[in-house]
User: What shape does this take?
Amino acid sequence: MHPTFSIVFFTTASGAGFALLLLIGVGVPLALLPDDAGFGAAALLVAAVLIAGGLVSSAFHLGRPERAWRAFSQWRSSWLSREGALSVLTFVPAVIFAFGWLAFGATGGFAGLCGFLAAAGAVASVYCTGMIYASLKPIRQWHNPWVVPNYFALGLMSGFLVLDLILRFWVVRPVGIGLLSLAAVLVAWWIKESYWRSIDAGTAASTVASATGLGRRGAVRMLERPHTEENYLLTEMGFRIARKHRRRLRNIARLAAFLVPVVAVLVALVWGGGAGRIAAAVAVLSAALGLVVERWLFFAEARHTVTLYYGADQV
Amino acid sequence: MTDLPASPPGRKQLGLVIDLDICVGCHACATACKEWNSGGHMAPLTDFHPYGGDPQGVWFNRIHSFEEGDGEGARTVHFPRSCLHCAEPACVTVCPTGASYKRAEDGIVLVNEAICIGCKLCSWACPYGAREFDADVGVMKKCTLCIDRIYNDNLAVEERLPACVMVCPTHARHFGDLGDPNSAVSEMVARRGGLDLMPELGYRPVNKYLPPRLDRMAPAPGPAEPPAAPDPAEGNRLLRWIDRLLSR
Ligand code: SF4
Ligand code: SF4
Assistant: This one.
């Protein structure tokens, strides 16, 4: 599948933003995080920018962005519609929570309830993002039980890393969040490796024989394409990436998204203050780069059944 | 709504039956489709650089060619590919806007271009590559089963057929109600062992493909002839001359 930059950016940014919203929405009302208004303003602003930036970027991918509002209507059947509707709805409790906290210093009661609701909306939105891909049967690498956990774990990991960095401007050495960030990165790493193992080991569901109904005489091969030139199907769904590059890009993702953040978080756990902040910033930047590579690969490695009509033996 | 209409058994399901045994791969159906639909319900079928070095455009029907089998038993099979108007079309249920829909009255799957946002998700959800994005208009396009021909009172009754079916010179394409087990097309499917494409994905395509007949197979290659024994006449000019004379 063709990796469109706006979607790669949208899913990574909104994943991080929603996870950050989840952590603040739960952590602050439960007094697990400081209720300092400055911290609140910074963390909520970053979450809002990540989520809204992602949503706006996803609209750029549309053929008719001016009609984007129509996408909220089909929540009964469409995961994409549910994702759109929920991510916008989540802003309602999030804004009330932010207002109560920043304007009145209230983090419990109704404001706290809104925090929980915003957190629930964030979880539901990320679940919908994962299901958009996991529900597509023509793409074996997406129609896979690891895809939804993958979206959750990678989002949560980036949310923790961002929170850890912001928190360090208010708390000298936030050990609890540091340890949780470390755990989140390790879990995400394990889930990503499991996903990669699963798609490498999985057997093809569809073959050129099942796609054409041929095969009673023997093996089926493509002889000729319909046209000599490219078309939408080939550029959108026929995107291919060499095995060599795939290996290299997976290693870059391993290094940037997981290994460097693990080391940086460990460093930040030991040193507080300025060094800790630098280490936490390194973790965030490296993870951002790594996750963009990871998300790009998530598309590039996915093979659509339409390629069976254009020379693939099995997908 | 992109919810699917209920489809009780016997509900009308218009579709095509494509005979892979006799399709000669002439691309007439694809050409007629392009011609009719360039002015039809989903018009335009935009072409980019049609006379340039890198022409590209929207087609509802594309003709692929495959080889089946090896050696002398093999044959070429031409394979027209278009929307199968599936009974369980995920292309419809994934649509966030309601632009994609399946008609309750005849099962035809259509796109309402006036509300499509061009998110392309439906083209990802179609296993068969039946949906093509029109980058010029910014919306998704697909086969309409010539909805503007089959119900068109301005056409003579015998012309109320999809353009591809009308034009096929070998009669490899048939149109009818596949929801009715007694229709001509359903009987043809039963007689010829008509197939669903990629049944494993569960889209339950309405269009059926008739596989090439096996009894029209080229004769299987017989056992190779034993190598000729050394000719005793070798070297004898007279016998060689007789041999040549007799083998004329
Ligand atoms: S062939 Fe593709 S576009 Fe047509 S109904 Fe089936 S899934 Fe939808
Ligand atoms: S491209 Fe149009 S028809 Fe297809 S899913 Fe998106 S809005 Fe629906």
Summary: Chain B has one domain: 14-217. Chain B has seven helices and eleven strands.
